[in-house]
């Protein structure tokens, strides 16, 4: 790890990725070590729209939104390192591999997502990441995923 880890608050996150309510799924990204590793934070709240139907009387965060939150964390990590603020960067899923869900994520939980770059470099379009999402130190989800970074030209 470098000596100067970076952090992205919600204002900076919104300057890097285009996602907005109800699909902005990361509240803060901490411990950004270049484009290598980062820790995303998602505060899970009952007022999120997917809880209306998933499931009435037993709200559970859908697994696909957990994976999406990890992907958004990865995009912010790379965006911070590459200086993509206000540059209209888009990121597209290409593959999701080795995805496993280990515990339910419910309103009131704080989802902590540790992301690591497996493949990718500045200027490259295709990146691969590994992510682990935890609640209270207990693994909720793990996955590897590949994404294409649509980086705007200078």
Can you describe what's shown?
Helix content is 18%, strand content 40%. With 154 residues, the chain is of the alpha+beta class. The longest helix is centred in the middle third of the chain and has 20 residues. Strands 1-2-3-5-6-7-4 form a seven-stranded antiparallel β-sheet.
Keywords, please?
lipid a biosynthesis; globular; FabA_FabZ; alpha+beta; seven-stranded antiparallel sheet; HotDog_dom_sf; 154 residues; cytoplasm
Q: Largest sheet, described in full?
A: 7 strands, antiparallel
Q: Which structural class do the helices and strands define?
A: alpha+beta
Total helical segments:
2
Q: Report the span from N to C terminus.
A: 29 Å
Strand-residue proportion: 35-45%
Strand order of the largest sheet: 1-2-3-5-6-7-4
What is the chain-wise order of helices and strands?
EHEEHEEEE
Number of separate strands: 7
Average pLDDT reading: 95
Portion of residues within helices: 10-25%
Shape: globular
Radius of gyration based on Cα positions: 15 Å
Topology:
Layout: E1 6-8, H1 10-16, E2 28-33, E3 37-43, H2 63-82, E4 90-101, E5 110-119, E6 126-135, E7 138-150
Antiparallel strand pairs: 1-2, 2-3, 3-5, 4-7, 5-6, 6-7
């Amino acid at each position: 790890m470098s000596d100067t880890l970076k952090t992205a608050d919600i204002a900076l996150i919104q300057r890097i990725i285009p996602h907005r309510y109800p699909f902005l799924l990361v509240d803060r990204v901490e411990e950004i070590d270049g484009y290598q590793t980062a820790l995303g934070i998602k505060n899970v709240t009952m007022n999120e729209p997917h809880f209306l139907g998933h499931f009435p009387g037993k709200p559970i965060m859908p697994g696909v939104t957990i994976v999406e939150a990890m992907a958004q964390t990865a995009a912010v990590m790379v965006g911070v390192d590459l200086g993509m603020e206000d540059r209209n960067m888009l990121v597209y899923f290409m593959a999701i591999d080795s995805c496993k869900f280990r515990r339910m994520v419910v309103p009131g939980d704080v989802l902590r997502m540790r992301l690591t770059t497996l493949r990718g470099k500045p200027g490259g379009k295709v990146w691969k990441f590994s992510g682990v999402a935890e609640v209270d130190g207990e693994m909720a989800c793990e996955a590897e995923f590949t994404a294409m970074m649509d980086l705007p030209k200078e």
